[in-house]
Amino acid sequence: MAATSQGNKPYIKDFDPREVLDSNSTAGANIRTSIGELEELAASIGESETGMVQFPILVPREDGTMRLVAGFRRVTAAIEAELESLHFTVRADWAHLPLTDIRAAMIVENTHRKDLTVKEEADAYAQLALDGMPVAQIAKATGRKRDFVEGKLALSKLTDDKAIQLANENRLNPEIAAALQEFEGQPKIQERIIRKVGEYTNLGRWGGEHIANAERAKQQARISTAERMQELRQGGAVILKKKPENFGHSSREADVTTLRDADGNSLDGDKLVFKPGFAAMRDSNQGYPRVVIVCLDPEKHGYTRRSYDRFVTDEARAEEERAEAARTARAEALAAAAQVRHRFYAETYGNARSKLAKAILAQAQRLAAMAPGSLSFYGDGNRLVTSISGTDPDTVTEATSTDRIHRILIARYVVYRERKLTAAIAYDRPDHEAAAWLDQLVAAGYELSETETTARATLRGEHLDTADPRTSTDDHTRPCPQCGADIDEWCDDECALYDTSDEYEAAPVPDETVDDPGDTRPPLAVIDGAPDTDQDGETADPAAQPDHLPADDQLAHAA
Predict the structure, then answer these.
(1) What is the pTM of this model?
(2) CA dist 90 to 75, 344, 404, Å?
(3) Which segments carry the region annotation Disordered (predicted)?
(4) Cα angle 335, 385, 419; round to 5
(5) Which of 190, 230, 344, 482 has the fewest CB atoms inside 10 Å of its own CB, making it the most exposed?
(6) What is the residue extent of each domain of the chain?
């Protein structure tokens, strides 16, 4: 492909694109390295009357051949479209220009096209710099600002595939590229920067500045920490090579900044680090290294820890383990006792005609009248009702017998009391109602296990100091520290310091004929397929029940 002399003015001439490409196959002047979407471009060139709006540019060589300086992709696309001839713009006026100026012209031409990758453009600027062109001259030749050129030069030095991908997606700005170059030879830092950039879809200049500056700060912290550790080592301080396990949470060792002396004063680590019982170590918080002065045994020195430090001494840990073992054993013992208690319920209250069951029925009827929602259960509670009554409560219909309904009602009441007992034992604090239920079971023939006996003592409050805790004259001048009772009052019933010095009396088991002394109406009866009525045929009125007491106290009152 020989050049035709037509002076120094640009002109248009047709050439075979294959010949042009062959003569430029090893040309180093063309900046394009990625072909990209050729099929779409080839189709548009093949279908268009003119083929393209802007023609590829050729520059005559001294040997008479042509150098392709712009349009490499379009020439390749023309070959894909099987075109035998293609219009080219021949820039004879560039023939005398040095290679750097030609490359600058190529940059100007290519950067106006969307198909040039960011990395290719950056490499073009880098080539100009390698040719010896100063940054200011590159900026002038390409019509760009100096900082823009410097950013492109930074991007040209990217070697990481992920970074190059982000750059080509316009997600890696020059500030980040400069930071990557700044940390050349430190791949871990570069990987962190690239990973952080990858978390953003549209990172601007200042976002890039934040990421870069954060790494610079970490780098400075690493340098200053290394210098400080060297000073401490030379001064004779003990250096910990490894951070103690669970340091700052449950380790014996502690950061001196978290300790206080006997007077509540903060400690000066710089003064203590060279003394026995202290050491220094390198720690890292979110990637920022620092020097930590450590007290190896704060309790030995009489220091106190901040509340969030969960360290415990060996003695305290052993006591905790004993207490935990005791809690586990208690829970297992209570679970085993509950299984026996449930069998007792089924055998004792499963027959609605027994004297004990009838006594429960009276209590159940009253609770059903006053608080029917208390007798509704799901899951385990419903299964226990079925176990005690021998019938599934969900299968009750209008045809269900009175005996069966009574058994279900009795079972519901027993489960109600059982659940309240279980909750009270779990809280492990005084609860008179729960203790009364255990007493009622004992009166019915049940024998308490050792764990249940201990639990009943707790429910009664027998394990507490039964005297008023405010024993001195000074103590009686202030409210109770537990419940706030005034000096002329006893503690509230719910107070853990509540006086339970009087002997606890078990609640009597109601006789089947005993009724509420304040209620002259006959006992209620449940009739199949009909509303609850009394024996005179009048509809039972729950509002007629004593309403000045809570539901549970009304039951006790009725008993």
Answers:
(1) 0.40
(2) 14, 108, 108
(3) 454-479, 502-559
(4) 45
(5) 230
(6) 11-207, 239-311, 334-464+500-513
